[in-house]
Specification:
9 helices, 0% strand
Length: 175
């Protein structure tokens, strides 16, 4: 009986984490950038996930940070930002080789003013993202080609990559 209860708990936890449709999550995340109500809604939804995987943690942290964009009080803005980066860091600790997780942190660091001190992993993330893209394909990463291409295009347009890295990214884009 104890084994069955443990198994049910494990399957339930796994199912709950996987119950999030990643494609819908991506769409909701994009909407949350400009819509504070959507950001609040998405944050609540992701906070309710039991045993979140690295991607869920990264999206949760990203939307927490985005809530800072929508806050009017500077103290709240910084609080959301700090909370968001701490959550993303947990996602990266869970799966440091997950491209989308690294990309979410990179993109936030890219947009957050450097003087706030949240850009300390920008170069490390860029290097990891380029290495992951160089050594894998979209299907290996279990993501659509469109998402893969969007990540690559963002990296190229970020002006954070050198000529050699851009060549690697363009090769993956065309490959």
């Amino acid at each position: 009986m104890k084994t069955i209860i443990t198994l049910i708990f494990f399957i339930g936890s796994f199912y709950q984490s996987k119950a999030i449709d990643i494609n819908q999550l991506r769409k909701d995340y994009i909407l949350s950038v400009e819509d504070s109500d959507k950001a609040d809604e998405l944050c609540e939804k992701l906070e309710a996930v039991k045993n979140p995987d690295a991607i869920i943690l990264a999206y949760l942290g990203s939307v927490q940070a985005i809530k800072g964009k929508h806050a009017w009080n500077p103290v709240n803005k910084l609080s959301y930002l700090k909370q968001g980066f701490a959550t993303i860091d947990k996602g990266i600790a869970k799966d440091p080789n997950q491209l989308e997780v690294r990309f979410l942190r990179f993109s936030l660091q890219y947009y957050v003013p450097a003087f706030l001190g949240y850009s300390k992993n920008l170069i490390a993330d860029k290097n990891k993202i380029v290495a992951l893209i160089k050594n894998t394909t979209a299907s290996d990463l279990k993501m659509s080609k469109d998402v893969f291409k969007n990540i690559i295009n963002f990296m190229i347009n970020s002006k954070k990559c050198n000529a050699q890295e851009i060549a690697i990214l363009k090769k993956a884009l065309n490959g």
